[in-house]
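Reply to dn_fold:

You asked what the input looked like. This is it:
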Amino acid sequence: MALITKSVNVVVDNVLSRFLASQDKVTDISPGSILRTLVEAIAFEIGTSPTGFLGLSLYDQLISVYNCGFLELSEGICLDRVVAILGVTRIGAVSSGSTVTFRRNTPAVIDILISQGSRVSTEGQVDQAAIVFETTADATFPTEILNERHTFSISATPEASDLQYDFDEKHIYSITEIRGVYNSVDVIFTQGFLMHLPPELEWVIETLPEKARRLIVTNEGERRSSFHAWSHDYQGIIEGTHAWEQVEMHSDERFPPLPATTVKRVFTRKD
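and this is what came back:
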């Protein structure tokens, strides 16, 4: 049976209606009247919160108790008790962690130390502030190396799970010659996107082997260049890093309406 609740206004209207129906001596229920003021004061202790958030009223407390009996509605200790009926124990909250790659434009003249606690952050959105992460240990950026992987952990558990990381200029630029930082992902899949990059933006494709950890899949048009699409040597670019190899390649003509010039390629890391 569903829980039926009443708002403060509904409680006020119901009480006043029943009161007027039960007697005929008191008839003034206008705003500011003694009767209405008393009823409204009591109704705020009974009806659901007008803000939409659960408060301390009787109905708000009933809603909280009701929600505790359902997996999709319960929270906190109530959720723990609900899943315990099924023999399940929730995993406790842990800090989020990932792998980040620091980048420089030219090889270093000397080894560069990236100290523990160096800060990187999410890019941030209009409706979400940037979330700051800190590196978990000291790391050395070796001479002659342009990219160096380094593990970092977040300073507070984020509400979102899929995050894009960017460099915090104030902190990263304070490390000599560091010009950027990005995080890697397990799989990168592209479809009909890279083919629209002109030759001067081919460097975007060159970053894929740096950003992926396990798999790269491209499904792109590879016909002759036109005014809105360009052909790229995906195999040559991705395998050029020597850490990746193409393990599958076929035309999409078997999957109409895709043309024969659309080619799927699958690359995996050698290590």
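Residues 148-177 have pLDDT under 50 and may be disordered.
Hope that clears it up.
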